[in-house]
Design goal:
This protein has 114 residues and is of the alpha/beta class. The protein has a single domain, classed as Macrophage Migration Inhibitory Factor (2-Layer Sandwich). The protein has 2 helices and 6 strands. A 4-stranded mixed sheet has the order 2-1-3-4, with helices on one face. A two-stranded antiparallel sheet has the order 5-6. Helix 1 links the parallel strand 1 and strand 2. Helix 1 packs antiparallel against helix 2. The protein is globular and about 45 Å long. The termini are close together.
Length: 114
């Protein structure tokens, strides 16, 4: 039950969105027990982001929410992969990307909680 939401300072076209969705779907497997079968993704492009007081370069803030406990080693690997994906597809440099993780024991779906 992971959710990856991305706030992106640049415009994302339909092809780029499709590539991002596909590659994030593959990358989520880095976290044991997670797969694209339960992954939800969201993209907020042309989002007003400032980093170090500046907005002249492309920026991204990526939030990864997962059901279950934290896995720092897997999160570290996933951060590297997320940075690669956003750099390759959107040209956002890894040092202009923040990735935030949130693990929760309460996750609702289909009218109930797991």
């Amino acid at each position: 039950m992971p959710f990856i939401n991305s706030k992106i300072s640049v415009k994302v076209n339909e092809e780029q969105e499709k590539q991002l969705k596909q590659e994030l779907g593959e990358a989520i497997r880095i976290i044991p027990g997670k797969s694209e079968n339960w992954l939800m993704v969201g993209f907020e492009d042309e989002y007003k982001l400032y980093f170090k007081g500046d907005k002249s370069e492309p920026l991204a803030f990526v939030e990864v929410s997962v059901f279950g406990s934290e896995n720092p080693a897997a999160f570290d690997k996933l951060t590297g992969r997320i940075c690669e994906i956003f750099n390759n597809i959107l040209g956002i440099k890894p040092d202009n990307i923040y990735v935030k993780y949130e693990a929760t024991s309460n996750w609702g779906w289909n009218g109930g909680n797991f």
